[in-house]
Amino acid sequence: MPFWSSLKRVRNIIEYSDAYSLFKPHEISYQDFVDRWLPGLKKDNLLEGLKPKKYKETF
Question: What global pTM score does this model have?
Answer without folding.
Answer: 0.61
